[in-house]
Design brief:
Chain lengths: 351, 351
DNA sequence: CTGAAAGCGCTTACAG
DNA sequence: CTGAAAGCGCTTACAG
């Protein structure tokens, strides 16, 4: 199987020109604005076709620093069956973006250091083969992002990322705005005591949701009654729900659908009627909505669009001379459902 | 941002040795089994540490000839939302295989020629960037496969592919065996008139299912009653189902779950009680099983395993000197369900 | 418009 | 055990 692939030199020989000409035919927009005569170009093109020549991206990258290769790196497995619905839209958007710009994608699957993935291996930035990379994954190690930024490697994170001492590019979803919108929706339904149950992880997306919640509560003059419970779904307890009810809570925001499932279970156990006595909403796309239940109030995260935008930002980053981080936040779409109903009983308005 | 990184030459200079020595210290298991004296090695190591030297992976790949890049090409979009459940397991397996063998994956997303994807663009094999490629897609153009084989490019198809004049490597699922197993299952339930409704496309996987069906029918001495209806799901008509019933058919094999949904609709329309009067089974993984219905009798296609196997085969192919196609057929797992029940009424056995 | 040549940063026979 | 040198396949000033 070791049939030697034709090189630029083979093409040049066949076309009766130098390799410089072949390179210029291949890179018309290259530096120097050099021109090749139409006849010569035609000869080169024919030689390329006859030999089936394809430029070697490795050599290209070494010589020019460009490879027309965009990396996709995930700190977790890229195709985890369990998170299929989470990753797939991102990848679809990334694929569309790459295809639209005639880039190929490089999936860094070899970057495994004893189990967990890491960008640097023996100090080597494994992403370097690609001109730049999109970074996926819920919790990227901040120190690796910082190193990447420090060495000037172009990358874009999917999801807002704050890194000390570095301006990181990202495409984020507007969790804060979408969460605030849900609070307003509940307010309009008459709810005045609205709680937030968020995950134990205080990552950026969770911080944004909390910020949106607090902002909207304050805007509605409900700031004093704001309650944030930070719990893993399985940590949420019956006493949590009892406590909320005792405090007069009539609506609760649940960060994930795991939280929602857990909440429904507990509500059933403590005899709380949902949503009649307590409305609830999920702060994102319910990936595994309860099939038997009516639709939950939630919002749509534009993952596909985010994937596409990440590629556009990455290409802009690669092409730009001076470094300026691209930080884009895309709106989420509010999706009203049956899990939020008008607040029960007499309203207790402020004095 | 362009602070020049130290190169091997910088290290060599500082350590007072040649670059060859530095390379050997870095690649102890490289070819040639050359040794470096401990003192020299220590000096090199110190220089590396002092300079913060990190080898350039691009240069490494170019010099060594080992790109460790495996291509993934799909004739359709790789991440089609509609076919998520179909492709995802393949990709998961491919990712696992690549990771296990320390290869990166190259997704050919730039290979678009006016809408549809094609391996050859302007006569050029675009896959050449990768050491070899896995080919996905339901109906790969046979002429492109033939050309690929002819030029000696290493590739493995996911799914059996027969190409005139070429021995193509593939990892297939044993549709024939699994279909035969379902026929036997029905036979054991007392069914004697069993029909097959397959798609209009006579591609390899469909041919295999039909072959398994016919083989099992003959083995059960039911060959004379074998009936194969070739229909697109939406072409299947009420008269088809009435005809089957009139012929005494008590069980029907449906190639896809689309066929199954259509069959159930028609059965309802013509007043056929399913599965009481007519059992049915799906010849593969029901991707969109009717949620309200009980589980259908079917079999599991080992897509994840197939993905992994395709990478192993591909690497073997790349490493092999002489060409020999890898053709592996993996067993499917029979999955009994509630859609197959004992045959109704008096059995009509042969004379 | 075209070519000869240097260079990208490594690896690897080939000589000492 | 070590070094000088060729080469991997390109791009890109620099001269014509």
């Amino acid at each position: 199987m070791k049939s030697r692939r034709p090189t630029q030199a083979d093409v040049a020989r066949r076309a009766g020109v130098s390799t410089a000409i072949v390179s210029r035919v291949l890179n018309p927009e290259g530096k120097g604005t050099v021109r090749v005569s139409p006849e010569t170009e035609a000869r080169v093109l024919r030689a390329i076709a006859e030999l089936g020549y394809v430029p070697n991206p490795i050599a290209r990258k070494l010589a020019s620093g460009r490879a027309r290769l965009l990396g996709v790196f995930s700190f977790e497995s890229i195709f985890p069956l369990a998170q299929r619905d989470f990753y797939f839209p991102f990848l679809l958007g990334i694929e569309q973006g790459a295809e639209a710009n005639a880039f190929d994608l490089l999936l860094f699957t070899s970057a495994t250091a004893q189990g967990s993935r890491s960008i640097f291996r023996d100090g080597v930035n494994t992403l370097q083969l690609a001109d730049g990379s999109v970074l996926l994954g819920r919790k990227p190690p901040k120190d690796e992002l910082a190193r990447l930024a420090e060495m000037g490697y172009p990358f874009v994170c999917l999801g807002r990322r704050e890194v000390d001492g570095a301006e990181v590019s990202y495409i984020a979803a507007d969790y804060a705005g979408a969460t605030a919108e849900i609070v307003r929706h509940l307010y309009d339904l008459g709810h005045r005591t609205i709680a937030l149950v968020a995950g134990a992880e205080r990552d950026e997306s969770s911080i944004d949701r909390e910020a949106g919640y607090l902002r909207a509560m304050e805007a509605a003059d409900l700031g004093r009654s704001a309650v944030v419970l930070r719990r893993r779904p399985d940590e949420t307890s019956e006493s949590d729900v009892r406590g909320l009810r005792a405090a007069g809570t009539t609506a609760v925001l649940l960060e994930t659908d795991d939280h929602a499932h857990r909440f429904l279970d507990i509500a059933g156990a403590v005899g709380l009627s949902v949503p009649a006595e307590m409305s609830f909403a999920v702060l994102g796309d319910p990936l595994n909505p309860a099939t038997e239940a009516p639709q939950w109030t939630s919002f749509h995260i534009p993952r596909e669009e985010m994937g596409r935008a990440s590629i556009e930002a990455l290409i802009a980053l690669i092409d730009s001379e001076a470094y300026a981080p691209y930080q884009t936040t895309l709106p989420c779409q509010f999706r009203p459902g049956d899990s939020t109903v008008p607040a029960p009983g007499p309203r207790e308005e402020g004095p």
